[in-house]
Predict the structure.
Amino acid sequence: MPRVARAKCHTGFYHVVIRGNGKQIIFEEKEDFDFFLKRVKKYSEMDKVEIHAYCLMDNHVHFLLRSEAGGGVDAFMHRLQSSYARYYNSKYERRGHLFQDRFFSDPVLDRRGFFACIRYILKNPEKAGICPLGKYQYSSFGDYYRVDAICNTDYALNLAGGLRPLLEIIEADADEDDEIMFELDATSKKEMQAKKVICDTLGVASGTEILSYEKSKRDEAILLLKSKGLTSRQIERLTGVGRGVIQRLQLEG
């Protein structure tokens, strides 16, 4: 079945989201976040795509991008996802698709949508219960204070009328329309709690370490996590073990 062409927007602005295959974790440690951001900078310059906001969460990434060229966003995202998947699969000795399907993109049509999108993206960590938006290390919030920013900060600053009014817009409570436009099942508090249960129970830094276990040890670990109250879907997302394997163990157990 042929792929449906992406909607083109006269403004050139798009809210773009990529997520891990099966919602699995795609950033295990600081080195992974740093590698990804270096590639964002490199390929955005190569494909002439402007970054206006970003936020890297454990299992997904949000961007606000602008490209006046027809295929700029597609080329940029293809390079970025391919490069990072090769890096991640090599580092963690895994195979297969790292990302779920193609990236999601939605046109941003006007000034209100532009600021609503920035607010939604930057508030992802706060909404997930991780930390206040200004303290999250892997979002573009800090670009408004950095000299070597990845983002084009001038556009938002000029549109808002300066840093103070822009911060007021970003820190304002999202209205109901914002949630309808941009809600995409961001990492929840329950997901963060489940990740902690896995790490504490198995004594690992990341749930994906289970993929390197021998089969019998892996199966024991999965059953142990089930006994701690984790759902099959949570174990699949946070360890990378297929749901079929988890369900088979449940039946055998």
